Structure formats: structure tokens, C-alpha cells
Amino acid sequence: MIINTRTKYFYGLGFISVGIKDILYTLFVFFYFNQILGLDPVYTGAATFIAIFFDAFSDPLIGIISDSYKSKTWGRRHPFMFVSAIPLGLSTWLLFIPPSYLSEFQIFCWLTSFSILIRFFLTIYLVPAMSLGAELTPNYEERTIITSFRITFTVLMQPFIFLVGIYLFFVQEEGMTTGLENADAYAPFAFFCGTIMTLSILISTYGTKNTIPFLPKESKKENLSSIFKNIKTAFKMKSFTSIVFFTAMVYTSFGIGNTMSTYLLTYVFEFDEIDILSIVFAGALGGLISAYIAPKFGKIFDKKKATIICTILFSLGMASPYILRLLNLMPFNDDPFVVLSFFILYSFGFTFLWSAMSLSTSMMADVVDQYETFTNKRHEGMFFSTLSFSYKCTVGLGYLVGGLLLKLISFPTQTKLENIDPQVITDLTIIGGPFIFLVYFSSMLFLLGYPIDRKTYNKIRNQLDLNKNEY
Question: Which helix (H) or strand (E) holds 199?
Fold first, then answer.
């Protein structure tokens, strides 16, 4: 099946919801519950971490159910994508409206409960949608292009959402260091975000409906014993474990960075909302450039080598502003070039981060084909549920580690910059620089044993085509 550009755009559109969720948890959730509501950072990190235990069951469950689901009109992926839209948007809004009379522990329970719900409804969309991306084409290079559309749309709307938030919702009032301290702005902003998330999923799901007749049909329903057997077979595959553990390490670092980003930008570089907006634009710009870079790198170097190269480059790019600050090579905070320097370095980092993620997701689609040669079964949902779980689990772990790191360096809550010990700021910079770099860089080690290159994949496709002809 040839995938036209229109279908690729509609497919990518739904992932706007994932990008909005990411920016909320990156710049707003942790700051809101910690600095506005005064929740201890360990509580804040633990709330997200607890939710991963629910993901441990929901992600593979949704993947396996969608693999065997049957609908003559809507296929096996689209019904789940439709169902997720409204509950995901509603849960996002409710997260930011806890009753004012709650105790600290009750606030923690509120954050935990709605983090679980948001992640669950995201699973109902994300796992079938990622599986759909693998099913749209068997072409080795085309798969990277499709995953690039997904990544691009994930980050494309983030600057717009932040811009709308700063100018229309988070109005800085007298006595506030930043508009993010405006507690009354969070609920209406969350309602706006939830609405966009819902609409993006609904439009995307309907817009890709035309592909349903050409997609692989549902798998045969299996009992619990065979499901565990399938999972065991997958984990025996070097190709599968390489991608899973690589993704896990990258997103662990990403989760730590997300947790710390508002603190790093606000307290290390003293960025205001407009300065932070430029950094969000760096992520979006990196996403756009990666839509070109990832397929090109994959074609020139092959997917494995390209992903290793991208990992080295984004590790350097994401950590370099803080490493350069520690070496006194970064412009001072009152220098107008500090924001430009940060923007350039982060654009570079994000370009290769999103490129690595596009390539690794494309590699997982190839792994699904390899699995079929062993078992004569297709389980895209099962395979991509592990990536979804890896993403959410390790981001959750990242939030927990981020909270513990803030506690370790004794970072105060509900405080002004001028009241913070300079040593605490230095410790924060070390976390953003050398620490993050080492975790990012170490993820590359898991890719060294990945066995599928273009030549191997062509053999896999030939075997699958031969099997189909025999039937």
C-alpha cells in the first residue's frame, strides 16, 4: 500500500495530544503542585512513578486486545483511538482543579489518581496509533518517514500551546516573579489544552479511516498462556530487547530533564516566560528538521548506525548549555546572547533526539516483521505497547529521580531566586549537564547488539512474501 501525504498528515495530527500532555508535565504539572500548592517534591515525583504500576498492566493489555479486536467498519485500531479522545481531555482538565481544602496527602492522592487516568486514556490512544503506524507500510525507509510525521506533530504544537498560555492565561500580576505563579490560570488553561487534545485525536482517527481496508486483519484470539508465550518469545529476540532498553534509558533521562526543566531554565539561566518560549520553539524546530534528517540518516548510514550517531549528538546538545555554564563558557544571564546560544544548542540537541526516536520506532516495526517469520503471527499492539510502557514508565521514573534530586540538593519550595543558596544553583547545573549527559549517552550501549540492517530486513520481507504465497 502506498501512503499518500494526506494520510501521513492525518496520522501525525493525533499525536498533538501526546505533545500537549508532554509540555503540561514538562513545564506546568510539577511546578504547579510543588511551587503553587506546596507539595513536597518527593510526593510530586512519586505520584507519577506510582502510575507506572498501572501502565505495567494497561499498556500490554490494550496492545493485545487491539491486536485481536474486530470491527468490520473501523478495523482493530481506530475504535480504541476514538474512545480515548474525550476521557483524555477531561482528565487533563480535572488534574488542575483540586479542591482548595485538601491536605498535602490528599493533594498527592489527587495528583496520583489523575496521573493514572491520563496515562491510561493516553495508552488507549497511543498503543493502537503507534501500531497503526507500523501497519501502514512494509517499506524499510517509508516507515522512518511515517514515524517522523508522528514525532513532528508531537512537538509542533507545543510552542503554540505555551504561547497561548503565557499571553492569554498566565498573566503576571504584581508581586509575581513569573506568570506561572498565577494559580488562577491553571484550570482554564488545562481546559483549553484538554479540548485541543480531544479534537486532534478525533480528527486524526477519522482522517485515517480510509486505510482500514488495506491494513492487516485481526490476530486470532489467544488464551493467557499463549500471550505469555508470545511475550517470552519477543524478549528472546536481541532486536526487540535492544530497542526496548535503548528507549527506556533515553526516556529516563528525558523524564529527569522534564522534571527539572522549569527549575533549570528559571533558576540557572533566569529565563522568563518569553525566554522559555524560545526553548519550546527549539524543540519544535528540532522536530521539523528531524523529519528530514531521520530518513536521510537512515538511508545513508542504515538505521542502527544512524541512531547511534544521533544519540551521541543529542546527548551533547541537550547537556551542553549546562556544561558550558560550569566551564564559564556560556554567556552570563544578563547577556542578550544567552537565550540565542541556548536556542541554538537545544535546537541541535532536539533535532537529533527526535531523529533517534523516529529511527528507533521504525526499527521496532522491522522487529515485528522479524517476529512474524518466527511465529507466523503479527502482534504490533504487543510490541508497541512495550515502547509505550517504556516511554511512560521511564518518564515516570525520571520524575521520581528528579524529585529525589531536588530533595538531595535541598532545593526549597515556594521561594524566590534571590533566597536560594548559590551552591544549590551549582548543584542544579551539574544535574542538567554532566549527569543528564551520562544517562543519555549510556543508552547508546544497548543498540550495539541490534542485528537488523537493510540486507537482513530484505531477507525478512522475502521470507514473509514467500509464506503468504504458500498460503
Answer: helix 186-207
